[in-house]
Amino acid sequence: MKRRSLLLSGAGLAGAQYNVTALVPIVDGFLIENQATCRDNITPLQTGFFFDGVESGGVMTFVMRGGDPLFTIPDNDL
Prior knowledge:
3 strands; three-stranded mixed sheet; about 20% helix; single chain; alpha+beta
């Protein structure tokens, strides 16, 4: 799990502040050419590996796109 979280821990987040357990595959290398924010460094990875991050309850959780829906909103409720 450590390799999946180097950007986050390098940005100063403690392990309890993020969850990357749902991310697959593991990226073996990623070149950071210029000083930038953690978010700016994660954005190209999100584009290439199809995942999203969401904050809930003080924890940043990353999940793969394309999973089964958790619920459906009826048309009348839209």
